[in-house]
Structure formats: C-alpha cells, structure tokens
Amino acid sequence: MHEWKxxxxxxxxxxxxxxxxxxxxxxxxAVFRTAEDKVFALLDxxxxxxxxxxxxxxFGESVACPLHNWTIGLAxxxxxxxxxxxxxxxxxxxEDGAVALxxxxxxxxxxxxxxxxx
Amino acid sequence: MRKMKLVMVGNGMAGVRTLEExxxxxxxxxxxxxxxxxxxxxxxxxxLSPVLAGEQTIDEIILNPLDWYAGHGITLHLGKKVVDVHRxxxxxxxxxxxxxxxxxxxxxxxxxxxxxxLPGKELxxxxxxxxxxxxxxxxxxxxxxxHAVVIGGGLLGLEAANGLMRRxxxxxxxxxxPWLMERQLDETxxxxxxxxxxxxxxxxxxxxxxxxxVGDDTGRVKAVRFKDGSEEPADLVVMxxxxxxxxxxxxxIGLHCNRGIVVNDxxxxxxxxxxxxxxxxxxxxxxxxxxxxxLFEQAKVCATHLGEFGIGRYLGSQTSTKLKVxxxxxxxxxxxxxxxxxxxIVLSDPYNSVYKKLVVKGDxxxxxxxxGDTADGSWYFDLVREGRNIADIRDQLMFGQQHxxxxxxxxxxxAAAMADTAEVCGCNGVKKGTIVKAIREQGLFTVDEVxxxxxxxxxxxxCTGLVEQILMMTAGAGYTAAPKLKPxxxxxxxxxxxxxxxxxxxxxxxxxxxxxxLNWRTPNGCASCRPAINYYLIxxxxxxxxxxxxxxxxxxxxxxxxxxxxxxxxVPRMWAGETNSSELRRIADVVDxxxxxxxxxxxxxxxxxxxxxxxxxxxxxxxxxMPSGHAYGKTLRTVKxxxxxxxCRFGTQDSTRMGKELEKALWRMYAPHKVKLAVSGCxxxxxxxxxxxxxxxxxxxxxxIYVAGNGGIKTDVAQFLCKVATHEEVLEVSAAFLQLYREExxxxxxxxxxxxxxxxxxxxxxxxxxxxxxxxxAERLRFSLDGLPDPWFEHDKxxxxxxxxxxxxx
Lengths: 118, 810
Fold this sequence. Notes:
The complex is a heterodimer. Chain A has one helix at residues 103-107; strands at residues 4-9, 17-22, 29-33, 39-43, 57-59, 62-64, 71-73, 89-90, 92-95, 98-102. Chain A is mostly beta strands. Chain A starts with a strand and ends in an 11-residue tail after the last helix. Chain A binds chain B through residues 5, 7-8, 12, 14-17, 19-24, 28, 31, 35, 49-52, 55-60, 62, 64, 66-69, 71, 81-83, 101, 106, 118, and chain B through 452-455, 459, 522-527, 530-531, 549-554, 557-558, 562, 564-566, 801, 803-804, 807-810.
C-alpha cells in the first residue's frame, strides 16, 4: 500500500513546466505538469549525463533535457530512440488539486543512474 | 470499428516507402495487402549495378525482409501480377485468380524497360536490365559466353556494361546520341567519361543505329546488325534504351495516363479519388521521375493523405545524378547544359581528368556538371536547390566549399579515404563505421535518417557535408538530398518562412493560434518549434503577443547559463566592457558570499561567475546591483571595444563611447540567435570587429560598418556595409540592420547565414538605399525595446516565474 506525502498543489507547478523537489536522502526529484494538468515525477537526472530534467522544455508527455536535448518520456522515464536509458520513475497521486509522492519511494536512497549504452 | 483496406500493386522502393511512412503516422488505420510481380521482398533496385559488378550480393540489397511485412500484419502476395481492378466493386485480381478488395488502392507499378521494336528482339539472350532476374541472367551468361552488346549509353547501360566487363565479358556499348549520358552530362564530360571507360576495356559505337538482332539456328542471338550493314558479334544483348512508366494496368482500368498515371499534388490519380499512384509509374505535372530522391518525397506526401492527415503537397523535385561505377566520379544537377541567358564557369584539366562546369544565371547557380572531382557535388546541389544568392562567393565558387575556409567542412573529400574508426561527428562521437553500418543495415537514404539513427551531424551540423558524402558513397545515388526548405521540426510540414508569414499575415498572437492555423501535428509542439514560434510572435507583434517562458530554453527562463552540473553562470552587464572599483568590489563580495567557484573573463570582455546554485540566483543579482548581461539568451550579448582615442596613442575615434551608446540602445534585444557587436577605434581593429554580427571600425573621417561576421563554428569575415560620419548614423544603421534581421531571420539563424540567404544587396536595399525604410526599421526596433524590463530586477514584468528558484523540500 502507498503512503502518500503531499508536496504541493498542481497549480504550484507551471503548466508545461516542472518543479524541483529536494529530499533528505539526496537525489532531487523533478515533478512535471503537462498541458492537460497530468503530473509526473522522475529522478531529476537525465540518463545521459545527469542533466537536471526539471529545467527542460516540457511538451506533450515528454521533456527535453537542457544539457544535450535528449527527449525523455514522462510516463516511463525512458529516452526516445536512438538514445537509450531511463530515469527512475516515482509514483504520483493527484487528489483535489494536491500532488502527493509515495513516502517509501521518497525515503529510498537514489538508485544508481543507468547510463546510456550509446 | 472495421479497419479500412489498403491494397498496393507493386512492391518496389517507392511503394514500400509509402507504407513505411504510413505505418509511422497511422499504424492502425488499414489492413494492408501488397501484390508484387517479382518473387522477392522489397529490395534496393539502385544497387543492382554493384550486385552485377560483384561488389554486393542480393541479400545485401534487400530493404524489407519478409518478417518486416509479417511484423506489420501486411498480407504479401509475391510473384503475383495484378491483371485487373474492378473499380466499382473495388476488387483487385491477380493473374492466378487471387482477389483482394480495397477502400484505397495504391498503384506503385514502377516502370518497364523500353525495348526498341527491332527485328529479333524476342531471341534468347536478349534481355532488358531492370530487376533481380535480369541481373541473375547477366551473371549466369557471363560465366559461359564471351561477347556482350549493351544498347544504350545512359546511366543504366553504362552500369550494366561495366558490370558485365567486370564479370569477364567483352562489352561493346552502342549509343545513338552524339555522346554518352547526354541527358546528364554535357559533351566535354561525356567524352571524358568515354575515354576513361575505354581505358578500362569497354568499346563504344557512338552514333551507331541498330537495325536488327541476328539469331543462330537455336534461336539465340549471335550478332547485332547496324543500319550501315556492319555487324557486331553478341552472345548477350542488354537493352538499356530507357524506361517507360508501367501504365498497362492503369490504362486497362480506365485511369487517365499521359506518360505515366496522371496524379495531382497529393499523389491521388485524377480519375479515381480512391486510387493513388507513386513512383516511376506516376506522372506529376507532366514528369515521371526515375530517381529515388523525388520518389521518396512523393511517398511521404502520399502517406500523409492515406493516413488522413491531409497535409503536404508534392511540388516536383530537382534531381542530381551520380554514376555507380567504381572509380569514376561524375555528378550533374540542375540546368547543366547552359546556353541562353546563362553564364558558365569552367575548369578543364584533361591531363588529370578533371572537368567542372558551373552554370550561373544572374546571381544564382542553376546547374553543375562535374567530372573527376565531385567532392563538392552535394554543396553545389544545395546551392542550386536553395536558390542561394552567390554574388558574394562567385569568384571562389569553382574551388569548392573547403576553399571558403569553413573548417567544419574540411572533411568533404576525406569521406572515402577515412578509416571506419575515424570520427565523423565530433559532437556526438560518431565514427564512420557506425554510420556506414546504419546506412546498410537500416536502409537509410537521407541525412535526416542518418541523424535520427546515429546522431551524426545532429548537434552543431558542421559535419553534415561529410555525412552526406558517406551517404552517397554507401547508398549510391539512391540517397535523398534534403528537401528544398526543411520543415521547422517533425511537428509540422511548414518551414520557418511559412510560420513567419502566417504570424504576420494572420496577425497570430499565441503559439496555440499558430498550431491551429498551420495544422500542427502535436498538441503543444516540441523543444525545437516552441522556442522558434515564441520568438516569431514576440518579434512580429511586440507589446502585443505575450512571451511564454515555458517555451523558452532554460537559460532564457532562468536568465542565467546552465552548466554541465546543473549550476548556472552569471554575467553582469558592463557597458562596452568598462567597469570600476565599486562594481569589482561588489563582484568580489558576491563571489565570497555565495562561494562561487570560478571567475573568468569572457571573450566579450565581461566577467563570468561560474557555478552559481539556482537557488542563489536572485540574491546574486540583487547583491551585484548590475544589469543583466544577457549572456544566456538569443539576444544582444556584448559590445566589445578597444580603449579608443581617449587613451590610445593610435586611436582615431572614441570607440568606448560609441560602444556604450550602441549597447545602451540595443540591450534586452531578443533576436533569432545571439548577436555580438564590436567597436574598434582605428583600423588596427583591436576589438576584432571583423568577426562580429555588427562590427564598427573608426577611421579618420568617421566609421566603417561591417555586418554578418562570425567567429564560431564557421569563421566568416564580416562584409562591408557602409561608411558613415557620425555616432548617430552608426546607431541608426546598426539598428536598421538588426531589426531587418530580427524581422526576416529564421530562428537560430546567425546574421552570417541570414545575409548569405538573402544576399547583401537585399540588406543594402532595405537598410541603406531606402532611407525611409531605414528610418522605419530603426523606429520599429526602438518601439520593440521601449520599456522592456531588466529580468534580473523586474521579475513580474519580465514574466520570470520566481517559483523556479525555490525547490520544494520534503
């Protein structure tokens, strides 16, 4: 069972933008909001060279990494072809406009970044 | 819901490419059935010549193996020739009785070799050169027979002749026209080609007219007889006298044909709206194309219509030619014959077998014919297609792109000699071998596809020429040159100019309105198009269109430069590079207080504070108390100056004061790309005005203004625009030039590329000759900049979302 921790309101995240969430265990999380107000959360590190995804341009359900323009899918955290690699995903619950992350996932120390094959 | 049914007749390159494009945009729209007369899956017909010459095998040229069809749920009928279509009942019938019904029918029946009506053409040993079966017949015949005659000295005939010779046959080429490949080469190049092929062992009978093919008792050909009565022994006769669109089926079922199945710009037959035609069988605006590049453009357009996107029109293509005979380099494109109002620039070196002819009309290159050295072929072809003004490079045109001093293209002629391990794309670390492998294994034909699959040339783009060379080398003439004007990105077919025009003409004020008006394919664009559209909106409708920070790259959203570790750099503005003790003290204090690890003097004479945490940015700006340096944006960056006449014993003008005036007039100016200025106080030019977007040089009697210089990837010396007497004139001319660039430039196009595209004469006409327009341009720039906030201090007014500087802590 999920134990949820409310972190902000949906409106605290810019539409087609993101906010950075810092946590005690290290490993920032990027929380994204799409044009349709869907919210996604990924580890704030591009699988390529660790670029902060929270700073990228959000479009559709993707974000373009600000460092080298890899396109990362918000739903699965994975890079679009030909790039290979995935950013860790985090569960998100939105209820009555409140965005919540999973407490257990938040407490986990950040998983090793899987570097791209190419 | 029942899926619609699509039936394709013909299983060749153009048709299958259409299916690939269709599956990409609408994978589930159709149940697809394909009929192919040959017993093979789709293969690369262009590479039959290397197969004949023994350089490649049949397996290597298969483009779509059988499991590709299976994987996409395509019903494939191989070896079944379609003989009838019942258009009212919408049923296709093959020779063996197989039937398939359709909602949409795609005809891709290709072409047939033209066989001249000669007596004896039905004898054994007389074949055309078109498909795998023909190629195999030739290979088998070469094992047992000696004499071959090829009728036709065009592209196909010469490739066949070369292949047969490589297989050990004695080959004679019979050609009725006055020189070889007369449709692709002028007479000089045609003669040089003949000489070089003769040196390899081919024989030619130029101008000879064939009268009949003579058979022996067994019904096999034994000789070719000419009109003058002479004979040439032949165990094999290859007919390569040209191709004709295969319209037999189309004509039978009543579709209008006129040298091909007549289609409109959406590749729909003009007779039956349910039936489309692509490839060599289709006649578009009176032309049936025989080269793969235009056919793939057709395929793309056809797919968008079949896929019910209903966008894109095929408007015809310009084509180029390359012969796939190893060791012979020839290239032609456009109107290479010259004559009429054209002028020719010619280089001819018979000893080294090099011949180059460039055909110029007015200020444009309209054609090229190259023999012996074709390294610059793709560059010339680009110039022809883009219609670029060549007035400024005309005197160096003949010597090629390398000669223009473009360091990034130095590899052009290197492509062939490069080792597989050699790096082609320095930005993405892509080696030649990787590119060649991708081209071979994945059947790539365009630079865009190579870019997508390997990332080569995907970043700075300076290796594009080299990648194109590798593509030409590996894929043969089958490579598709980029379309004339590239779409902004994959979200649309509209190019930058069309987007700019639509925004101006329709008075569009939001990104959503642009998407709506131009039928964007994606709901909110992508990281390529959104920043471009945002710039076009705010530059076209200043103070009216609203800036959208979420459509800007992070640097312009955070007003600082992101670094590789996610920290930022901060460059405060120092007017014309001049500072003082109080500013330096504040900078020193800020460095200490925020523990900023690196302080660096930039090339533009500013101080760069590197490694600032994003959370500290607003406080750093406030403590610095200096205006934003805009070192992070597609904006006016810096005006670099020398000290000038105030101190310098050589100085003739006060360059620092001029620099300050320019910088104060122009700062906060967004542009298609970054803009750098410099002012030097005398012709010694210590501020390096010659490689700036606008460079000003003081002389005894006033100022010289240079534009469109660049010191980046491609070093370009600025071009002289004019000489003026006063500070006011420098300000006015600079403003007018930059506003013209802001209004007409495409996003991410530096001034050097912009001026290269429109021509310096155009700039002079607007900025200098028409004084009234010069004034209006400068006024429009002042209006645009009037009242713009400093984003470091007026966050609200500058639409800076300050929430980004405060992370959420849990």
